Amino acid sequence: MAREMVVTLFPETQAFQTSAEAQGLPETRATLRVKHLTKYFGDQMILEDVSFSVAEGESLVLLGPSGSGKSTTLCLLAGLETLDSGDIFLKGHHIEHLRARERNIGVIFQQYALFPRMTVVENIAFGLKIRGVKKQQRLDKVDELLTMIGLTEHQDKYPAQLSGGQQQRVAIARALAFEPELLLFDESFSALDPQTRVPLRREIRALLRRVHIPALFITHDQEEAMELGDQIAILNRGRLEQIGSPYEVYNEPQTEFVATFLGAANVVNGWQRGRLIEVDEERCLFNHNREPLVDGESVKIVFRPEDIALAHLNGRVEAPYQLGRGEVLDVAFSGAAETLSVRLLPHSPAGLTLATNRDGTATRQALNVVLKVTRTKWDALRVPLRPQDIVTVGLKSYKILRG
């Protein structure tokens, strides 16, 4: 059973089919290229038409809730599952028809799969040994990797004598022993405590930059995704919702799911009115989207908690857009930041919001929008607020999505 869980997937000499097609990154830059990946389990769709690229030395994080298709994607890349349709190219060569051991891909599993009766040295050298690498070459390679991961003084210990972070390093060294063309990390930090997990993933990110090997991480941890990824690909129910840099995905979400899944977001309903987005009879925002909208079309106004600015009632709000009055419902201080709940208030009793009936006609209803607001400790000190305070609400930035 232990032999079946070897972490490194070893290369074989094969005649590969080369692809001249390019998608996303130029062919010369993309080490991994996945095109139209589709997978069913029986009648259940697990992945549908998923495409992405990973460049040499780049890290891509697949992020999504449980059941979104992250682990299935990793298994398809590693050769542990067979795809129904699509293409996988590694350095321009088709690999989807190859067995797992023929793909030259290193996999670091969540539980590391270290051999408990082997020392650190023996675990790292195991794959080299069964492939017939000479003893001195094995020892030289192991010494190099032990220095790289900072575990030279622990080389004679067994896995049970190592911490979780040290076991993670050994698993990575074993995966690197064969100089793989791609590394896959399957929720590899989730079993560690926060005090170990945060510094370790920074060390691993720095290590990957040194060895210049592309990596794909599977996680449901948003903070981890933001810290590890040059790109983040967000999966939802087997479909790729958005892919981009952490900055792009966080600040320019293309769907409501992306906005609310990656970090906290406020989502407010609105309606297109000429060049404006009407929130209610008294609140409008300028429609700065390039995509044209039909007059009367419903939209979603999306903005982050830190995009909101607050001031005492009738005070100056340091924000270009005004949302009017609000009532503070709750204040929670966590040290570095303060989180508030603020309910928007009408300017007058007549302040109402549009609601669309089933027959398409519009009626008015009372505005009931509660916003989540995040402020730095310095803003909290400058403008102290308590529950039931009435404030002026401003908006620094927002995104318009089709309703």
Structural overview:
- The protein has 403 residues and is of the alpha+beta class.
- Helix content is 23%, strand content 35%.
- The protein is built from nine helices and 23 strands.
- A seven-stranded mixed beta sheet has the order 1-7-8-9-4-10-11, with helices on both faces.
- A hairpin with a 2-residue loop joins strand 13 and strand 14.
- It is elongated, with a radius of gyration of 26 Å.
SSE arrangement:
Layout: E1 8-9, E2 30-41, E3 44-55, E4 59-63, H1 70-78, E5 85-90, E6 93-94, E7 105-108, H2 120-130, H3 135-149, H4 164-176, E8 182-186, H5 194-211, E9 215-219, H6 222-228, E10 231-236, E11 239-244, H7 246-251, H8 256-261, E12 266-273, E13 276-280, E14 283-286, E15 298-303, E16 308-312, E17 321-333, E18 337-344, E19 352-356, E20 362-366, E21 370-376, H9 377-382, E22 390-395, E23 399-402
Parallel strand pairs: 4-9, 4-10, 7-8, 8-9
Antiparallel strand pairs: 1-7, 2-3, 2-5, 5-6, 10-11, 12-13, 12-15, 13-14, 15-23, 16-22, 17-18, 17-22, 18-21, 19-20
What's this model, at a glance?
The chain is α+β, with helices and mostly antiparallel strands. Helix content is 23%, strand content 35%. Strand 13 and strand 14 form a beta hairpin.
Question: Key features?
Answer:
23 strands; 23% helix; seven-stranded mixed sheet
Model regions low in confidence, pLDDT < 50 over at least 5 residues: 1-23, 349-355, 361-366
Proportion in helices: 10-25%
Beta percentage is: 25-35%
Query: If helices are DSSP runs of H or I spanning 4 or more residues, what is the number of helices?
Result: 9
* Biggest sheet architecture: 7 strands, mixed
Query: Rounded to an integer, what's the Rg over CA atoms?
Result: 26 Å
Cross-sheet strand order for the largest sheet:
1-7-8-9-4-10-11
Average pLDDT works out at 84
Shape: elongated
How far is it from the N-terminal to the C-terminal residue, by CA? 52 Å
Q: Give me the count of strands.
A: 23
